[in-house]
Request: fold
Amino acid sequence: MKIPFTKMHGLGNSYIYVDLFAFHLEEQQLAPLAMEVSDVNTGIGSDGLILIQPSRVADVGMRIFNKDGSEGKNCGNGLRCVAKYAYEKGIVENRSFTIETKAGNVTAHVHGDSDTITEVTVDMGNPILNRNAIPMQGSNDEQVVAESFEVSHHPLELTAVSMGNPHAIFFVEDIKDAPLLELGPVITNDQRFPEGVNVEFVEIVSEHEIHFRVWERGSGVTQACGTGACAAVVASILNGYAKRNQFVCVHLSGGDLMINWANDGHVWMKGKAETAAIGEFIWS
Ligand SMILES: N[C@H](CCC[C@H](N)C(=O)O)C(=O)O
Reply:
């Protein structure tokens, strides 16, 4: 089976994109395909698979599958690449349009000349802050801000934020010392998060600037996580390290994202979207 694909990335967080406006895949093929294409040795190499597809409720639809075949409900870097693709291929004609995700609809705005979109701004909507909606175990429905959270004998302080997908944020003095490889794989599967969780460590530089590293649910360490960057800025503001209604520069391994938790409650994300390769995946 030959599957046409486009490999795109947001700050090095790459996915293999399949355009279902032009190609058909069966539901039961999606998870195994995500694992196969992601394999750097026997596949193409990526953090997962993203489908660009028709939508009844938005101008275009997106589904995202992590490297392990699990389906995520949202993907910030993926949204920017889907927006780039949809505009460049003429799936949409306006520079602003809606994208359906499993977490709801978002609005994207593409920047750049008509045949090469370089940057995209996405209105990611409201963050979800109540414990039960993250989801996280616990009796009350309060926010989870600087809550003590012990794991592997490390006394940590957790702030939990969902952007339609769950994020556990921990602030550290120096991002270089963040215990990402030791604690990322442990926390992502911690039973206190019934659906698992994306794990982020953040160093505050100023109210306008943070450093960020991530262990993603279903993909492990990635170069960048768009929803994670949004969650990290929301968490920084909830902890008093940054302010609403102004852009915060998030330094991720693969580059910078500009994030603003506006006074209307919506989180705005602006950053690059790039095409790396176009081809056919031979799936036997
Ligand atoms: N691993 C995430 C999905 C991808 C999110 C990330 N790549 C982004 O850019 O937001 C999850 O299972 O919730």
